[in-house]
């Protein structure tokens, strides 16, 4: 992998890098990225639309007369459509994180930085902010001229409109984030009076500020200097990983020529050295210098180069998704696809499938009733009327569905063991109910000491839903 710090390209220097050998760090000049179109650009915008429709749309969906997706921190419940998750379900969050990690490893081993190029929030929001910028200030040439122009009324108006549009979009983004943790209806009511709570205000402004700064101001610097994924991606690549590549064998020696000229007749390769692949790169690199850690695999240079090849009547694919081995051995797509199924991807894929299946099975078999038993510490064991020994317990019964239900509590494990009450309890929808029960046994039912007993909680209208939890019963000496 080429390191641009050791092998800077002339195109990067042309975009404003400080080449003074006496300076330790290169000065950054704002990139004015040229827009392009093509297959990969369409895919990138499709992912922008998909991710943002999900992000901005989910808080407005309703389910069972409440918000469909709500991580309600106050109630300590996570609502995801028909599921209600409790703090005790943190296991599922751990599994989800493991699935995300293995999915990242799997897709990176196959096709490089797909996440970075198409679905990373930094990429997605940068695309949106650049689209806003282009609509207000014009294409890359007009924006470059505007940057160089002195401040006047026109420039002030354009910059004000752009910054204002960015700010409104960022605040909407921050508001939407908080809507996942506070009911959106309450937020809308607070919005009319600006009566947000302190934490809601903080997170709206915090996330809006980071969106504005990262996507509007820092842009490629986040990918190049701040994102850890750019640094450790190299250990997940191998010679059979699909990455954006420049076919040096076909393209060199590069040089200008007239349209339609056969490159062999002028002793040149297919690359006409137009530099458009650099102009459309969101991180400002020259892919012709080899794979660099700044490359996010977005494919913008592929679309741009293919358009140039079309105009020159040359075959497409001078810049394309390929592998290191494919370039060296001149493989076609068939050989590349054959090498996708290699030990690394098979292991990652197998583990990913196994964990996903375990997650699905766990959710499908997840009980919607949960019982935790706590012994009453104030009254461990005592003798009551009739020569009976009594232990007091507090049952925390969690009704995990959004329907009220009645349950019957019983106990077993010792001769003559019974509850002092009828064992009936009403559970409101999606709540935790504390039920105190007195368990009694005859004094001579067992030897003094600690004995194992079992509580059984059965849903009255669905006997198939039953929870059994063990605990201990103490008979004093």
UniProtKB/TrEMBL annotation:
Swiss-Prot/TrEMBL keywords: 4Fe-4S, Electron transport, Iron, Iron-sulfur, Membrane, Metal-binding, Transmembrane, Transmembrane helix, Transport
Species source reads Azoarcus taiwanensis
Annotated region (Disordered) at 1-21
Q: Does the keyword Electron transport apply?
A: yes
Q: Name one GO molecular function term.
A: 4 iron, 4 sulfur cluster binding
Q: Which parts pass through the membrane?
A: 38-58, 78-105, 163-181, 201-218, 346-365
Q: Can you quote a single GO CC term?
A: plasma membrane
The record ties this protein, via Gene3D superfamilies, to: 3.30.70.20, Immunoglobulins
Give the Pfam families listed for this entry.
Fer4_18, Fer4_5, FixG_C
* 4Fe-4S ferredoxin-type domain mapped to chain residues: 262-290
> Record's InterPro entries?
4Fe4S_Fe-S-bd (IPR017896), 4Fe4S_Fe_S_CS (IPR017900), Cyt_c_oxidase_cbb3_FixG (IPR014116), Electron_Trans/Redox (IPR051684), FixG_C (IPR032879), Ig-like_fold (IPR013783)
User: Which PANTHER family does the record associate with it?
Assistant: FERREDOXIN-TYPE PROTEIN NAPH
Q: What is this protein called?
A: Cytochrome c oxidase accessory protein CcoG
């Amino acid at each position: 992998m080429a390191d641009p710090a050791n092998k800077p390209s002339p195109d990067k220097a042309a975009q404003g890098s400080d080449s003074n050998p006496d300076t330790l760090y290169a000065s950054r000049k704002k990139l004015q990225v040229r827009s392009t179109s093509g297959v990969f650009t369409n895919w990138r915008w499709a992912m922008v639309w998909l991710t943002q429709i999900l992000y901005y749309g989910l808080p407005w969906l309703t389910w069972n007369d409440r918000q469909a997706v709500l991580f309600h921190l106050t109630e300590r419940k996570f609502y995801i459509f028909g599921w209600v998750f409790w703090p005790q379900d943190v296991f599922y969050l751990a599994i989800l994180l493991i699935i995300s990690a293995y999915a990242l490893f799997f897709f990176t081993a196959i096709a490089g930085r797909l996440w970075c190029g198409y679905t990373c929030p930094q990429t997605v929001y940068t695309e949106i902010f650049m689209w806003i910028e282009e609509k207000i200030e014009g294409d890359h040439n007009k924006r470059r001229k505007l940057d160089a122009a002195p401040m006047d009324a026109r420039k002030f108006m354009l910059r004000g409109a752009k910054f204002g549009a960015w700010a409104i979009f960022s605040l909407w983004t921050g508001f939407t984030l908080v809507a996942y943790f506070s009911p959106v209806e309450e937020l809308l009511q607070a919005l009319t009076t600006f009566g947000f709570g302190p934490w809601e205000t903080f997170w709206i402004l915090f996330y809006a500020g980071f969106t504005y700064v990262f996507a509007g101001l820092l842009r490629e610097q986040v990918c190049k200097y701040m994102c850890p994924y750019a640094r450790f991606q190299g250990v997940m690549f191998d010679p059979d990983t699909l990455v954006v590549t420049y076919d040096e064998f076909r393209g060199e020696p590069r040089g200008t020529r007239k349209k339609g000229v056969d490159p062999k007749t002028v002793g040149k390769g297919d690359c006409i050295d137009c530099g458009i692949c650099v102009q459309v790169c969101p991180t400002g690199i020259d892919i012709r210098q080899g794979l660099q850690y700044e490359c996010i695999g977005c494919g913008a240079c592929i679309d741009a180069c293919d358009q140039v090849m079309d105009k020159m009547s040359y075959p497409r694919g001078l810049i394309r998704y390929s592998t290191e081995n494919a370039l060296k051995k001149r493989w076609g797509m068939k050989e590349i696809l054959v090498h996708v199924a290699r030990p690394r991807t098979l292991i990652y894929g197998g583990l990913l499938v196994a964990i996903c299946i375990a997650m699905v099975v766990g959710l499908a078999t997840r009980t919607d009733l949960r019982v935790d038993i706590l012994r009453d510490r104030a009254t461990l064991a005592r003798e009551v009327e009739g020569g009976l020994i009594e232990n007091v317990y507090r049952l925390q019964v969690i009704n995990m569905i959004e329907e009220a239900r009645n349950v019957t509590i019983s106990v077993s494990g010792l001769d003559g063991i019974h509850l002092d009450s009828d064992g009936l309890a009403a559970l409101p929808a999606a709540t935790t109910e504390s039920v105190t029960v007195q368990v009694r046994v005859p004094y001579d039912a067992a030897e003094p000491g600690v004995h194992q007993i079992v509580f059984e909680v059965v849903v009255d209208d669905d006997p198939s839903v039953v929870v059994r939890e063990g605990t201990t019963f103490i008979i004093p000496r």
